[in-house]
């Protein structure tokens, strides 16, 4: 199975020039803890709710600090043709819980550890069922 088969297609993005307040509001409105930062259609970084928490703890001004100044710039990503097991390995190795899916330099989807867990669980269940059939 490939990421194109399981990826979320509704992606919430924001520009690097957006304020931290705008980012927090967008996360609240969409009930998410992760935003992809995009400029001219290209992925520039990502922002997590943890990044916002650190910003708050440091006492930064929510209206003056930009997303671009605190975002994570080295985003780990995959392609729609990445196998779910390879994606799982990549996410574990890089210690990320969300994986943007990129095709032709455009963001086309997002896969989370939860998305992968349910697919892998189903694959394991199917395998165990086959084993039971052959055991009898």
Give a quick summary of the entry.
The chain is an alpha+beta fold and 136 residues long. It is built from 6 helices and 5 strands. It has a 3-stranded mixed sheet with strand order 1-2-3. Strands 4-5 form a two-stranded antiparallel ribbon.
Protein model, in words:
The chain has a single domain, classed as CBS-domain. Helices cover 46% and strands 21% of the residues. It has helices spanning 3-6, 20-30, 49-57, 67-70, 84-94, 113-135, and strands at 13-14, 34-39, 42-48, 98-103, 106-112. A three-stranded mixed β-sheet has the order 1-2-3. A hairpin with a 2-residue loop joins strand 4 (98-103) and strand 5.
Write the SSE topology.
Blueprint: H1 3-6, E1 13-14, H2 20-30, E2 34-39, E3 42-48, H3 49-57, H4 67-70, H5 84-94, E4 98-103, E5 106-112, H6 113-135
Parallel strand pairs: 1-2
Antiparallel strand pairs: 2-3, 4-5
Helix pairs in contact: 5-6
Structural class: alpha+beta
Strand content: 15-25%
User: CATH topology, what is it called?
Assistant: CBS-domain
Number of strands: 5
Our measurement of the CA-to-CA distance between the termini, rounded to an integer number of angstroms, reads 28 Å
Mean pLDDT: 90
Assigned CATH superfamily: CBS-domain
Low-confidence spans? none
Please give the CATH class. Answer: Alpha Beta
